[in-house]
Design brief:
- By secondary structure, this protein is α/β, with parallel strands linked by helices.
- The chain has one domain: TIM Barrel (Alpha-Beta Barrel), CATH 3.20.20.100.
- Strands 9-8-7-6-5-4-3-10 form an eight-stranded parallel sheet, with helices on one face. It has a two-stranded antiparallel sheet with strand order 1-2.
- α1 packs parallel to α10.
- The two termini are 34 Å apart.
Amino acid sequence: MEYRSLGRTGVQVSELCLGCMMFGMGADETASADMVDHAIDAGINFVDTANVYSRGVSEDFLGKALKRNGKRDKIVLATKVHAAMADDDPNMRGNHRRHIIEQCDASLRRLQTDWIDLYQIHRPMSGIPIDETLRALDDLVRAGKVRYLGTSTYGAWQLVESLWVSKEYGLNRFVCEQPPYHLLDRRIERELIPFAQSYGFALIPWSPIAGGFLTGKYERGKAAPEGVRYSGDSDWSKRHFTDAAFDVVDVVKAIATEKGCTPAQLALRWCTVKPGVTSPIIGPRSMEQLEDNIGSVECVLSDEDMTRLDEVAPPGGVIVSYYDADFGPSKYRW
C-alpha cells in the first residue's frame, strides 16, 4: 500500500480509501468492524463515511469498530454533512450554520471521537452563500473539532469561488474534493483535475467501479442477477445497460484476463493511477469484496493498456452518468 499527500496539507493517506456507505445497509455491525480491522491491517489509513448513510448507522458502526480495535489515532477519519437527517424538519438538512454545527456534534458522538480529520460538505447548495458555510466550518476547525475541510461533487468554478471567499475573509479553505469518476464518466478531466493540480486539492473519487457495473458481473443482452444494484427495470439498469457501456466492460474484462486480475481490480487501478487522483473510495459490502479491492494495488497497467481503455472510454467523455438533474440530489431531496 502506497501513501499520498492529502492535497497541500502534507497529511499522508493510503492510495485506497475505505468507504463505509454499506455499513448498516449490506453489512451488519460485526461484518463492518471486521472489514475496518482488515483494511487497517492491509495498510489503509483513510476511512470515509457520512452522517446520512443509513441516517447515522454507518457512523455508529464505524465508531464502535474503531473503539474495538483501538486504532482511531492511526487513521485519517472523514465524514460528511448536508443531506436530510429528518423528514419533518426543514432545518435538518443543508449547508447552513445551524445544520453543520449540530450535525458535527452528532457525528462526533456516533464516531466516539474528539475530532474529525476531514469534514466534507456532501453536495453544493446554490441557495446558501458559500461564506455562510465556510464561516461555520472555520469555527469548527478553530474549536478543534475538525482538522481539514472538503467537498463532494462540487464543480471547479464553485471551488474557485470558495478559495476566493476563504482568502477574502481569512477562513480555513477546502483542501479536497470527492467527485464521481470512473471509466464510464471521465468529465472531471476537463476542468476539475486541472483545477486540483493547480490549487493543491486532493481528489478522492467515489464510485470508481461505477457502482459495481465495471466488475463484469453483468452481461450484454442478459437480465441482471437478482439482488444486485442494477437488477430489474431500475433507473440504474436503464442508464448502464447500453452497448457503449458494455463495450467498455468487454475491454476491461479482456485486459484483466491478460493481467491475471479481476475486472473490478483493473477498473479500480485505472482510477488510482490517473494523474491528479489521491485516493479512490472503495465501498465493499463484504469481506470478499474488500479483499478484491485491496488486491488492485498489485495490478500494473502499461501505456498500451491505458490506450486501449481510452479508445472505448474517451478522455473527458461520459458514457453513463449517475449524477444528472433527473437522477441526482433533487430526486432524493439532497
